[in-house]
Every structure is written in structure tokens, then in C-alpha cells.
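A quick word before the example. In earlier lectures we treated sequence and structure as two separate objects. From today on, think of them as two lines of the same record. Here is Anti-sigma regulatory factor (Ser/Thr protein kinase) written that way.
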Amino acid sequence: MVEDPLATADCLQLTREVGFDHLLQGGRPYATSCPLPFQADSVKTARDVTRRTLRGWGLQDLSDDAALVVSELVTNAVRYAMYAATGHREITLLLMRVAPHVLLAVADPSDEMPRPKEPDFVSENGRGLYIVETYSQCWGWDRLSRGGKAVWALFRADS
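And the structure line, produced from the sequence above:
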């Protein structure tokens, strides 16, 4: 649920004006990016980077929820986007602090838009985007100019 729609809109507008392609290049004091290979252990790496980054920003209270969401986004990228990978393209994790928000994004080479499924709580898969929606303020995806997409989730960081 979005508590501050104007601040949320401002954060998303800023992100879109700058563009995920530019943000994914990293090297900014308010952002961390991390390339990840198409491997199952990339999920653990993404969780570790997320927790370490949030702790460094003084936002450890957000780290469990954010790590869960990052796990789901990276799992989806590894599972579904690796077949779209041509050459040595990889997944990229981006964490960006735009007070009072933290934006998490996972970019992959697939142009396939993410499609939420009706959650089946008995099945072992199919709940990823439901979890992302439940734990974040809002989520979405943007196409990248180089091809592929960035799936993002926005969190309110109260610190």
C-alpha cells in the first residue's frame, strides 16, 4: 500500500527520467549495482548484496523484506530470462536510495513482460510476483533501450 503517493510518484518519475539503462551502469553514491550470472547461487549473492547495502545505508529494518523481494526477482530472471540471453549478457541488480524510498531493480535480457499468476499456495512456484507485490509498496517493469527489461520494487524507508 502506498502511504505517500506524491513521494512515490516523484521517485518513480526521477527513475524514469534518468532511465534504468543509465542507472544500471552504477558508480553513483546513492546507488549500488551488481552483475549476476545466470546461476542459482546468484539469488544468495543478490540477498547478501541487498542486506549489506541496506545496512550501510542505515536501513537494516528493511533488509529482510527487501532480501525476500530481491530473491524472487532474481529467481525469476534466472529461471525465465536465461533462454533470452545471447552472448555473455547477465542479470544486474540495482539498489537505489531516493529518500524516503529504496528502489530495487533486477535487469535481464528478456523482453518478456512479467506476468503475475494467481498464487497457488500448494505449488512450489508461481508465487514470486505475489510476494513482490505483498512486501513492496508497488512494483512494475520498464523496457531497457538496449533490449531486455528491469523489474523493480519500491520500498518506503523510514529512517
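Notice the following. The mean pLDDT is 81. We will return to this example when we discuss secondary structure assignment.
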